[in-house]
Amino acid sequence: MDKLREPLNEIALCGLPLALEAMGERWSFMILRAAFNGVRHFEDFLESLGIARNILSNRLSRLVEVGILKREHCADDRRRIEYRLTPKGLDLLPAMLALRQWGEKWQLGVPANPVLCDARDGLPIATIGIRAQDGRMLQPDGLMWRDRAELEAEQRPAKLHEAG
Fold this sequence. Notes:
Layout: H1 15-23, H2 26-36, H3 42-49, H4 53-65, E1 69-73, E2 81-85, H5 87-90, H6 93-108, E3 130-131, E4 137-138, H7 148-163
Antiparallel strand pairs: 1-2, 3-4
């Protein structure tokens, strides 16, 4: 089989442009960062980010529309709204951390403070990377594209054997 590569001209079949469209731009990432840090209210986003009110309103609406954040009434004051991460939004944490680590290494040039640590042992988290199914760290030269139908055909006999 010839070396398979990602079809770069088929943008509609790639998750990356769709993810970038959902997130929008820099302010969406900064709002998401604030949400991961426990910011929930419009005024708190405004104060902590130094963002213009109209831009914040627009970005929050977009993040709710694409299902990354959800709007909820506050339990203690039903007139106030909270913005909370959805499971879809929480799934963006590894991507956010990878971008942060990349920015510290290549743009900032130094590790940022505070340091994100494992709550269990208090040690800094590992560098985000690409892992094989067995947990091995992979480098770009250890990656290859495969056709999904071919993979599924290989897995079908194994699943039938497990079921039998």
